[in-house]
């Protein structure tokens, strides 16, 4: 592939790798770059490997006096429908929740109380893609700008992120939505009331949501949970950063020499290179199977819903990434048995930097025949 982008006024790095582990096409693949949401590949895979696809996040909810008590968790996927089911099972009615009569309390939290990563850009704190990260949450700790709208799911949130803002008080957000979920009075009294409700969220569901719609919130909760899983103490960004790098080093068999500050890629203190990413994805494919890789978006789906549609037969599964001046795409091409990572940094042009990434990927696909294993040149 011709490196015609070498002299462009932005940083381009890419690496294509075959099943023998050899880089077959590359450009500045050892250069440290900002990965943006390609960090979610690292977070998702380490969680998938460390905890297993069948792992369940268990939250117990009980009603005691005037207190609704949440215990365990975390609850990154809890939305309005989930709260409504909890209120039905506990047989709560609107009258008991109005005027602050019921408080929401928490116990046995599994991630710490540091809700904002110090490496994040303060200017992004007003946007729904950078909410406060807490153990117990509802609607990814976001609320609609139109306060009359409450009955929405997480997909609606991600389809219209500009219509939502972060909440300042996550527990109060849960209390407010409890009121909305119990707007219809419950006339059953105590009949059928459950003493305790178990809310479950599966690892597969969390990773699928995180990778498909590029959910920063789920990524950060999952990232912080890694250190709880290892130490049985409330998970933190600092501890999980060390654990993630250590787990990847053990898996790869070498020090990847990466900088990790968070799990979603929001931080501009994350650095890695495309050679590392293509190597990681290939080794995931060869050693851990494709259960994790198939959680990544594919053309026409998730964050790739409007990209690479003409290449659906190539069976591409890849994670997108974007920050101001940054674009990334890394994944696996099953038709050519190739892993790849393409990242653009320092881009100030008028066109979307993702257009350059798609052009590079399309150029690679056009010069390689589909084959059952490896790559054969035309």
Report the β-strand fraction as a percent range. Answer: 15-25%
Q: Give the CATH class of the largest domain.
A: Alpha Beta
Q: What is the CATH architecture annotation of the largest domain?
A: 3-Layer(aba) Sandwich
Briefly note the structural class of the backbone.
Answer: alpha+beta
- Overall, the morphology is globular
Give helix and strand order, one letter per element, not per position: EEHEEHHEEHEHEHHHHEEEHEE
Query: Radius of gyration in whole Å, from Cα?
Result: 22 Å
CATH topology call of the largest domain: Beta-lactamase
Overall mean pLDDT: 90
User: Which parts are unreliable, with pLDDT below 50 for 5 consecutive residues or more?
Assistant: 371-378
The residue fraction in helices comes out at 25-40%
State the strand order across the main sheet.
2-1-11-10-9
Q: State the CATH superfamily name of the largest domain.
A: DD-peptidase/beta-lactamase superfamily
Q: In this structure, how is the largest beta sheet organized?
A: 5 strands, antiparallel
What is the total tally of β strands?
Answer: 13
First and last CA, distance: 13 Å
Number of helices: 10
Structurally, the number of domains stands at 2
């Amino acid at each position: 592939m011709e490196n015609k982008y070498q002299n462009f006024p932005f940083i381009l790095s890419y690496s294509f790798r075959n099943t023998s582990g050899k880089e077959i096409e590359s450009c500045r693949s050892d250069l440290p770059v900002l990965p943006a949401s390609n960090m979610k590949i690292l977070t998702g895979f380490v969680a998938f490997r460390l905890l297993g696809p069948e792992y369940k996040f268990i939250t117990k909810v009980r009603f005691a006096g005037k207190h609704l008590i949440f215990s365990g968790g975390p609850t990154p996927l809890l939305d309005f429908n989930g709260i409504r089911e909890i209120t039905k099972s506990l047989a709560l009615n609107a009258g008991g929740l109005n005027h602050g009569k019921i408080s929401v309390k928490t116990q046995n939290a599994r991630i710490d109380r540091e809700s904002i990563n110090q490496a994040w850009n303060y200017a992004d704190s007003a946007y729904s893609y950078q909410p406060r990260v807490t153990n117990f949450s509802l609607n990814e700790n976001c609320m609609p700008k139109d306060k009359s709208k409450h009955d929405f799911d997480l997909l609606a949130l991600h389809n219209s992120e500009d219509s939502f803002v972060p909440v300042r008080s996550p527990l109060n957000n849960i209390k407010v939505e409890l009121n909305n979920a119990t707007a219809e009075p419950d006339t059953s009294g105590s009949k059928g009331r459950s003493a305790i409700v178990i809310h479950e969220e599966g690892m597969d569901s969390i990773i699928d949501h995180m990778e498909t719609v590029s959910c920063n919130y789920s990524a950060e909760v999952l990232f912080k949970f890694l250190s709880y899983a290892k130490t049985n103490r409330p998970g933190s960004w600092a501890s999980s950063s060390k654990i993630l790098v250590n787990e990847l080093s053990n898996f790869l068999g070498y020090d990847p020499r990466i900088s990790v500050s968070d799990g979603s890629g929001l931080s501009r203190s994350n650095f890695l290179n495309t050679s590392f990413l293509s190597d990681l994805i290939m080794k995931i494919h060869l050693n851990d199977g494709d259960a994790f890789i198939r959680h990544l978006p594919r053309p026409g789906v998730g964050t790739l819903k409007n990209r690479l549609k003409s290449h659906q037969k190539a069976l591409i599964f890849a994670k997108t990434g974007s920050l101001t001046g940054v674009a990334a795409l890394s994944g696996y091409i099953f038709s050519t048995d190739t892993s790849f990572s393409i990242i653009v940094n320092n881009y100030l042009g008028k066109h979307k930097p993702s257009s350059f990434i798609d052009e590079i990927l399309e150029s690679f696909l056009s010069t390689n025949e589909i084959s059952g294993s490896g790559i054969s040149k035309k």
